[in-house]
Write a structure and sequence with these properties.
globular, alpha+beta, 29% helix, 4 helices
Length: 139
């Protein structure tokens, strides 16, 4: 089974899996955002690659061991909400459209994942001094 640690090696493996899924037949990509329960911003965390047999909310669950700590690494203020983060997804590579309000991000609750659900994760990284990409949360 894949490692559940949040470290460079596990992130690399998750990124390799993302590339495999994305390149494979029927591979789907979605953008993932996280925020504080009552916060006004949802921060872009990265991209998830999953196959047609893996529902988006199950892919989110299968990757929680990476998504939660990565969201908090990118945005340290989210650490206080690590176990209560809210999650939203959007069509892959739609960050600009979502930011402009031309496309919606959908809130999702993680759901049980099966052992056969093997999504990949392409994490977002910031350049030094960069605050990160976020979208405004609709009330």
């Amino acid at each position: 089974p894949p490692s559940k640690k949040y470290d460079k090696k596990t992130l690399q493996k998750a990124h390799e899996r993302f590339d495999e899924v994305k390149a494979g037949k029927g591979g789907l990509v979605m953008d993932v955002y996280a925020g504080a329960p009552e916060g006004s911003k949802l921060f872009f965390v990265g991209k998830i690659g999953h196959d047609i047999k893996t529902p988006p909310d199950a892919a989110l669950t299968a990757l929680q061991h990476l998504l939660k700590p990565h969201a908090c690494f990118l945005q340290p203020a989210l650490n206080a909400y690590a176990d209560k983060l809210v999650w939203a997804i959007a069509r892959g590579n739609s960050e600009v459209e979502v930011a402009k309000g031309e496309e919606a991000a959908t809130f999702v609750e993680p759901m049980p994942a099966k052992a056969t659900h093997r999504p990949g994760f392409a994490p977002e990284w910031y350049e030094p001094g960069e605050e990160g990409f976020y979208i405004r949360r609709d009330a």
